[in-house]
Amino acid sequence: MKDSGGNRRICPEAVERQLDFCGKIKGLWEGRAERAALACVQTYGCQQNVADSQRIMGMLREMGYGFTQDPYMCDVIVVNTCAIRENAEKKVYGIVGQLVHVKEKRPDVVICLCGCMAQQEVVAQKIRASYRHVDLVFGPQALWKFPELLYEVYTKRGRVFSIEQENGSIAEGLPVVRESGVKAWVSVMYGCNNFCSYCIVPYVRGRERSRQPGDILREVRELVADGVREITLLGQNVNSYGKDLDESVDFADLLEEIDGISGDYLVRFMTSHPKDAGKKLFDTMARCGHVAKQLHLPVQSGNSRVLKAMNRGYTREQYLEKVRYAREVMPDLVLTSDIIIGFPGETEAEAMETVELVKEVRYDALFTFIYSPRPGTPAAALPDPVTRAEKQIWFDKLLMEQNRISGELHREYVGKTVRVLVDGSSGDELWPLSSRTQGGRLVHLRGGLSLVGQYVDVRIVDSNTWALYGEIDGVSL
Fold first, then answer.
1. Do domains 180-289 and 293-411 have the same CATH topology?
2. CA gap 127, 310 in Å, rounded
3. Measuring CA to CA, which of 66, 235, 444, 452 is 20 to 30 A from 306?
4. DSSP assignment string, 53-100
5. Is the pLDDT of residue 234 over 70?
6. Would you state the pLDDT for residue 29?
7. pLDDT for 323-381, tens place per residue?
8. d(Cα 59, Cα 153) in Å, to the nearest integer?
9. Which has the closest alpha carbon to 268: 151, 343, 185, 357?
């Protein structure tokens, strides 16, 4: 079924059919009284992968599975993968390779590989030939029919591969297991139309398709009613939201609608593509009380020639103007970004322009990468004469500069009182609580786990490059 505007929405009958398969698999386990069926879901990659895994867990729960992190106790193992970086792929191959030992001890365990890696034909061929203990392979576009695919594995007793290239789809009404009652991910759209020359995402996640505003608002209302304190809206490029819908609505409009939902909660979003981020979005963020004054705006490079080669759709100057305006209307804005060093053909002088941009913008934090070629992308075919060792030198200069800036910006918090959401345990005996400011800065606290899920005012007493340390009233240091 297609909504007009090209938005492919799976009809309710097809979704219900998948729930029927959940029931059939649950029936397969009934009568095996020796123990409950168990599943393990391992997630690698971005927040969208986390959200996808929560849907997979929801479907597994409907099938009657409980959950464990011990693969040797499992009846089903799902490895949800990322294809953005070469190192991520190598790590996944290593993990999947180790699962052969689980299969040897438990021959009936079903091992599934899904996510962006799985959507690539070259990966599927490698799994088919060299990882014969993997039973089911499916890409992001087939996630909604996971129950049917798993049922096929069980009933046909053979390996199943579902990596057909599709235009992408949206399936509403699938169950979800949210692992935290404090934070939640809400996908507002899927896929990408940008085709940045280094990026594999459009090839594995399909074209852009937006969820209907009513479906998103319904999900957010339910989360707020359930006491969720922080909701992050997800999309490969949230600023493209609504372009494929009939009604005239964009991402800024959606933010304003969500902001109208009453409750004590905060909304974040990622990721914003600079070419589509404009004054309307920044004005809306500034105006909406529930929207965090935090912006992740990936620049990727500070050189306009490199940006053009990356097919990013903006220049250095245009990016800086967007940052200037965003900070003008939101003086307390926390700004983060992604940067790639060593894009094919990039010179040292061009890389240093990126370092200069970092000095000028003064990001609160960066996600930094040395260029990693992705087979099938245009950039992978470009000449790349600079050695990895040279790129590492440029990369280290970038890190040194950003670490200095982050340390300086964090020191400015010391002595101030800020409102934070306590979101869990830090794993540190001295500072056992983890929390976040409205701008997403990590704050370690002392206090009991009873504070998790609460907003508290804390006085910042110390800082380093990566985190802040806060004192809650009544909790001595």
1. yes
2. 31
3. 235
4. HHHHHHHHHHTT-EE-S-GGG-SEEEEEE--SSHHHHHHHHHHHHHHH
5. yes
6. 87
7. 999 999 999 999 999 999 999 999 999 999 999 999 999 999 999 999 999 988 999 99
8. 16
9. 185
CB within 8 A of 436, min separation 6: which ones?
Answer: 230, 420, 421, 423, 442, 443
What CATH number should be reported for the domain whose range is 180-289? Answer: 3.30.750.210
What homologous superfamily does CATH list for 417-472?
Nucleic acid-binding proteins (2.40.50.140)
The confidence band for 3, taking pLDDT boundaries of 50, 70 and 90, is very low
83 in Cβ contact with 116 (< 8 Å): yes
SS3 at position 116:
helix
Number of Cβ atoms within 10 Å of the Cβ of 176: 16
Q: Report CA-CA distances (Å) from 182 to 37, 56, 71, 226, 407.
A: 28, 20, 27, 9, 28
Give the Å distances, CA to CA, from 342 to 188, 383, 394. 32, 12, 8
pLDDT number for residue 149: 97
Please name the residue that has the structure tokens 């000449």: 383
CATH topology of domain 12-162: Rossmann fold (3.40.50)
Question: In CATH, which of 3.30.565.10, 3.60.15.10, 3.30.750.200, 3.40.50.300 is domain 293-411?
Answer: 3.30.750.200
